[in-house]
Design goal:
By secondary structure, this protein is of the alpha+beta class. Helices cover 50% and strands 15% of the residues. It has a single domain, classed as 3-Layer(aba) Sandwich (Aminopeptidase), CATH 3.40.630.30. α7 links the parallel β4 and β5.
């Protein structure tokens, strides 16, 4: 973790959200979730910024360097489910609201299933949860994602906690 840049305040989350927006611009899952939504870029950026703000309050947000080639947000397992109160306290609620009701309704069933699966798999054990990770397109394939993951895994081992993340394969 010492090699990673740790975001320090909420002012950096919009820049980090832009990195994630670029990283996921062509992702078929997110394209489908945001299908037919006016101003995809603005809405997805708001969607990406919500877990960053939440993680900054309850966990950590990292980049490979101050250049923000990529971004990863991690929280302790007890904060893996973004509840209303936590979103309010972290300033994530208002950012997330910018993505709109239409997208929120599409994503709710997904979050519900992921939360149930996570609870079943982890089984009450202590863990670190990777909320989101992405690398800007122009930096992909250069080891920045690996650097982020290795840093978080190293922290997980150091704290003697499981490391949990969801993946998507297309």
């Amino acid at each position: 973790m010492s090699e990673l840049y740790r975001l320090k305040d909420f002012d950096e989350t919009s820049r980090a959200a832009e990195v994630l927006t670029d990283a996921f611009a062509d992702d078929p899952l997110w394209r489908k979730a945001f299908e037919g939504v006016y101003d995809y870029h603005t809405k997805f950026s708001a969607f990406a910024e919500a877990p960053l703000r939440y993680s900054l309050k309850y966990g950590s947000v990292y980049a490979p360097s101050p250049n923000f080639e990529g971004v990863a947000a991690v929280v302790p397992g007890c904060h893996a489910q973004m509840g209303l109160w936590g979103m309010l306290r972290s300033r994530a609620l208002f950012t997330g609201m910018k993505m709109g009701n239409r997208v929120s309704k599409r994503l709710m069933p997904l979050w519900k299933v992921l939360g149930e699966d996570r609870k079943e798999i982890v089984g009450g054990r202590d863990f670190l949860y990777l909320m989101i990770i992405g690398v800007a397109k122009k930096y992909q394939g250069q080891g920045h994602g690996k650097k982020l993951l290795n840093g978080i895994i190293e922290e997980s081992v150091k704290r003697n906690r499981l490391f949990y993340l969801e993946t998507e394969t297309v």
